[in-house]
């Protein structure tokens, strides 16, 4: 019943202090509701400690009516101490937590500042490194390009020098070969060569042919004459030999002379010509009996021989010249 | 009258702004469902509860694994501004952890955030968004660059509110860590504005601007853009600033600028300043060492002869 209202210290196995955990108090009242029919108020079964008369409190000036249960003021002290202590401790913890948090934040901030400055330093060094590297790359590239250009230029120069030398030889050789092939000519010389000399040779040939023809004709003539004389001589020997002594020196002489003439045509031409002329004159004067044909032939041979003579002279002169 | 009997009604809700969370590992799934509810109040309360829960990193991890991001993505476009603000706050808290930031990026929440930055008018909202962006951009900036974050940040650099300026500069700092970011920063002519910000009265604005410059001047274009905008003298002043981070950033930025021949010429006069920095000390040994090292590197870069 409510007499079991005493505080838990009497029944607690351990002391109740401010560090102990809250515990559910054992049930201190009747579990079941009172039937409302019971008007009995004397034993206050659900009695609040505050209204229990048997408890003495500081502010009750009521007379002690029943047997004392306990002195409230005395008993309340430890309870209050525990309560207040717990509250204060809790609030102290919270405040300390907040302070700790603030300190943490402050140190975090400081650390961040230091870290930022270190980071900046690292980045600066990185940047410097990058710049140096890029500069080096650029310089290397430049150098490489210079060397490359240098090489190219020297190659070009070498190629040019070589080509020049090659071609320098080429030009004279070309000209030489052209000249050798006869592509360069002096027009007058060529003209002379082409025009004059063949003509000259032609003429020389013609003249030589004429002289050959003439000689052949002369040979024919002489042969005829000789045959005829022979024939005449043979005839005349048969009949009489009166005009013979006049003829003989002239005739055989002429014959021999003409024979000589035919034999030695070139070298003693002028002599034979003269002799022949004399011979002709003698023949003309002495042998008028000869046919006019003979005379014409003789004149023709004279002319031919004259031409021959002049031609021979010319050729002789030319030979002298050349 | 207090009765010791259990009442039949639900227990009293102490915090009416928050929904009651379930116990143990059911808390998050239940909240997730409530986020999708039709009722505005439920959503708001669920968001508030989520916000409180998110302070615990394990909670964040768990929330990510059950896929709260999708819900948050939907809620960003909610009609009620309160919902949006709270969603952004949740995102901010998740972004402060690396897991959360990665999750945000992978779910593609950056573009809506950037868009929001342009659209929202309230300054606190903008600050929140900027904070979130700062944290996310630290992880990965590619998606943000795709959504033109540089232009948006450029506008914010000129805002009146100093917090917005400083956070925008910080965001630009994180953006320009990546190479693509640097190029975009140079392309959109943000550097002159940053140099102008170097003369700002507020210290943390200056330091963030110096930091952004420090990263942007790593590439050659950035260097020459900064030199043209006369960045050297403000940076030199910043070397004497009380904030350590400002000095560190300024030293680093000057080191970058000293790599260009023109910068080197100008800075050769100021080598003694750097030498003085080499010997100064600081209470925290790491910071002091960092400062000394930065000063030494700056001197060596300035005095470099090809």
Automatic annotation (TrEMBL), chain A:
It is found in: Cytoplasm, Cytoskeleton, Flagellum axoneme. Residues 300-309 have a biased composition (Acidic residues). One of its GO terms (cellular component) is cilium. The keyword Repressor does not apply. Residues 286-299 have a biased composition (Basic and acidic residues). The keyword Transferase does not apply. PANTHER family: FLAGELLAR RADIAL SPOKE PROTEIN 3, RADIAL SPOKE HEAD PROTEIN 3 HOMOLOG. Belongs to the flagellar radial spoke RSP3 family. This is Radial spoke head 3. It comes from Mandrillus leucophaeus. The gene is RSPH3.
Automatic annotation (TrEMBL), chain B:
InterPro entries: ARM-like, ARM-type_fold, Armadillo, Cnd1_C, RSP14. It comes from the Eukaryota. One of its GO terms (cellular component) is radial spoke. Transmembrane segments: none annotated. Residues 28-144 form the Condensin complex subunit 1 C-terminal domain. This is Radial spoke head 14 homolog. The gene is RSPH14.
